[in-house]
Write a structure and sequence with these properties.
This protein is an alpha+beta fold. 17% of the residues lie in helices and 33% in strands. This is carbonic anhydrase.
Length: 242
Amino acid sequence: MKRKFLFLILLCFINLAHASDWGYGKENGPNSWASLNPKYAPCKLNELQSPIDISTQHTTPTINQLTILYKNNAKDIINNGHSVQVNFNDAGGITFEDTHYSLVQLHFHTPSETKINHKSFPMEMHLLHKDKQNHLLVLSVLFKEKKENLALKNIVQNIPNNINEPKALTELNVADLLPKKQGYYAFSGSLTTPPCTDNVQWIVLKTPLEASKKQIMSLHKAFGNNARDTQPLHERVIKEAP
C-alpha cells in the first residue's frame, strides 16, 4: 500500500513537470524555450515571431477588412498555469480579408506582450481563431488601468482556484470585451508561447479598453508575469486600418 502511494506521488510530480516544462522563470523562460524541447525550436529558429513593438511611424495604410460576429457561447474557464483561458464552442468568429476564422479560446497576459511605440500596457487579451484549413489568427486587445470593466467581471469572478481544473462558464458576451472602434494593426507573426508556431495572422486593435487595478491584479495573481519579450521585425510589413 505504501509503495503504491509513493508511486502515485511520483506520477503526480512527473505529470506536473511535463505540464510545466516551459514557463516564465529564469530556468524555463522565453530565452530557454527552444532548448527545453525539440518541438519548441521555432521559438529560436523562425524569424517572424511575436510579440512585436509596433511603431506607428512605420505602418502601411490599408482599408478596414475586419468583420466581427461573436455569439454568447462560452464553454469553460481554466487556469492552465500559464494564463487564465476561456474556451468556446460554436461562438462565431471573425472575417478578415475574405477568410472566416472561428473563435477557439481567449487568454490574458500581464503585462502586455505587444508594445505600441515602445509602450507596454498593464494587460493584453489574445483571442485565438482558426479557419477551415487550421490557419491561425490572433486578435489582440490591450487594456489600460482605469475604471472597472463590467464585461470582465464574469471572468475574474470565476478564475479557478486549482490549475488545470476547468470550470463551467456561461453568459459571457465576447463582443463586450472589444472596443467600439475597431481600427487595427495587422501583420504576420507567431504564437507567443511554445511551440511558437509561425504563419499566424495578427490583428492588434488600436483602441485599448479599461480595466480596474483590482481586476488586472486578480488575473495577474492567478498566473504571474507571462509576457514574452518583443521580437525583431525582420522587415515585416505592418498594415494599419482606420
